[in-house]
Amino acid sequence: xxxxxxxxxxxxxxxxxxxxxxxxxxxxxxxxxxxxxxxxxxxxxxxxxxxxxxxxxxxxxxxxxxxxxxxxxxxxxxxxxxx
Length: 83
Prior knowledge:
three-stranded antiparallel β-sheet; 5 helices
């Protein structure tokens, strides 16, 4: 699997999401689209602590209540970029 350079990912991110603030909250599906991953992979990254998120609700609603800050996505992209 090949990965795009960080600059290309960042510009693709802006194209997909538009102008956003660092505090914007995204759900797992939105983050998956940005990172070109499956939503379950995004949830796994959160579970493993590699991507920080906030959980809303309780019980079965918790899965749908996952919110990830745009700044966390940007940080993950920066940290996972290969130099």
